[in-house]
Write a structure and sequence with these properties.
218 residues, alpha/beta, Rossmann fold, seven-stranded mixed beta sheet, 18% strand, Oxidoreductase, oxidoreductase activity, NAD(P)H-dep_FMN_reductase, CE1759_FMN_reduct
Length: 218
């Protein structure tokens, strides 16, 4: 079974940011299922880790068990959706805190959909001027289609067009999660290491970097 991580950074509960994440995840689930595979969705709400994030950023030795579990879940996923509310013309501070806490190799080559919510369509360029560069810096494989949803779009023709973008973005992500749309389960190529770059959750000791004592003595 494939795995999909959804990182959202809404502050309220429920939030429009989480709701958009759920909507995109449902579309990805449908697209992957139509390609003959199943997928398990894991939601990572940044607000749930706010205290541990603050501790980790000012004290590298701080104990952050909940955040550590989230990092492991994220790095093990086959695909990623990130959704941030827009504050002061960019992604939220909480959203950035979460990604600042990650190992720089935690989402290497991970197929990713970027999405954002805001009160006005004036902020739509944040997708390409803030979210896309951040994910690219972390070596994620960002899908061509991003999703932006403004409060003023609900119940309008633009709202319908957003649904179309969600469907298109979900299809793009599903094509990477399931490499061949016509394959049967178990025969798809694994894209998680398609450039040879391993992922590191940053939690504990990465066995790939461990050098046996016997090698050190030679």
């Amino acid at each position: 079974m494939r795995s999909l991580a959804v990182v959202t950074a809404g502050l309220s509960n429920p939030s429009s940011t989480r709701q958009l994440g759920e909507k995109i995840a449902a579309a990805v689930d449908s697209a992957v299922t139509s390609r003959g595979e199943s997928i398990e969705v894991h939601f990572i709400e940044a607000r749930d880790y706010a205290e541990e994030l603050a501790s980790a950023l000012v004290n590298t030795a701080a104990k952050t068990p909940l955040l550590d579990d989230a990092k492991k879940t994220l790095s093990a996923a086959d695909g990623l959706i990130v959704v941030s509310p827009i504050f002061q013309g960019s992604y939220s501070g909480l959203f950035k805190m979460f990604f600042d806490s990650l190992d720089v190799e935690s989402i290497n080559d991970m197929p990713t959909i970027i999405a954002a919510t805001a009160g006005s369509a004036r902020h739509s360029m944040v997708l390409d001027f803030a979210l896309r560069p951040l994910m690219t810096f972390l070596h994620a494989m960002v899908m061509p289609t991003g999703v932006f949803q403004a409060t003023e779009d609900f119940g309008t023709p633009e709202g319908a067009r957003i649904d179309q973008r969600i469907t298109r973005a979900a299809g793009e992500l599903a094509n990477f999660i399931v490499a061949n749309p016509d394959h049967v389960e178990g025969l798809s190529k694994d894209f998680s290491h398609n450039s040879g770059r391993k992922r590191k959750s940053g939690v504990g000791i990465d066995t790939d970097d461990f050098v046996p004592m016997s090698d050190l003595l030679n």
